[in-house]
Amino acid sequence: VADKIRLIPQDFFAELCEQIIQHLNHKIPGINTAELCQRIQTSGIDINIGDLAKIANTLSFLFSTAARNNLSTEELVTTLGSGVSPLPKHAVQVIRHVWSEQGKAIAVSEDAGNMATVGQFVDMKWKLGVAMSSDTCRSLKYPYVTVTLTVADPSGQITDKSFEMTIPQFKNFFRQFKEMASVLETV
C-alpha cells in the first residue's frame, strides 16, 4: 500500500484522510473512491480504483485502531515510522495533521458505538422504461423499472447497486416500503 500512496499527490491524500475521518465520525455515510479516483486520474496520476480502495481501507483501519488504542499523535507517527515499508514523508505529515486536529473526536465516537457491519443506505434512484424490441423479438412493449441503490459498505466505500423489476415486482416492492413506513410511524 505504501508504494501506491507514493503516487497520490499530497492534496488528494489529505482529502482522502479527511473523508475517512468524517466517515469514522459518522458525518458522511462513506468515501466516494470512484469520484476521487477519477479526479486523481484526470490530474495525470496512474492509479486504479482497486488500489485507491485498498489505501482507503488501510487508512480507515489505521485511524480506527489508533482511536481504539487512544494513541497520541506522536505515538501514531512513531508506529507508522517503524513499519516494514515506511510511508512517504508527505503521507506521514498529512496523517499527523489530520490525527492531531480530529483524532480525539474519533475516539469519542468509536466508544459511543460502532456502526452495523452491514453498511449504510445512502440514496435511491429509479426510472421507468419500456423495452420496444430485441434481436429475437420484434415487438416487446415491455415496461420495467430500473432501481439504483447507493450504499456505503462498513469500510466506507460507496457503491451503486442496480437492478430491474417488472411492474408487478415494483408494485410489491412499493407495498413493502409503505408497510415499513407505517410501522416506523408507530415507533
UniProtKB/TrEMBL annotation:
MF terms (GO), sorted A to Z: NF-kappaB binding
Occurrences of domain COMM (ranges): 120-187
Pfam families recorded: COMM_domain (PF07258)
Record-linked InterPro entries: COMM, COMMD4/6/7/8
Highest taxon above the source species: Eukaryota
Family note: Belongs to the COMM domain-containing protein 6 family.
Role description: Scaffold protein in the commander complex that is essential for endosomal recycling of transmembrane cargos; the commander complex is composed of the CCC subcomplex and the retriever subcomplex. May modulate activity of cullin-RING E3 ubiquitin ligase (CRL) complexes. Down-regulates activation of NF-kappa-B. Inhibits TNF-induced NFKB1 activation.
Name listed for the protein in its UniProt record: COMM domain-containing protein 6
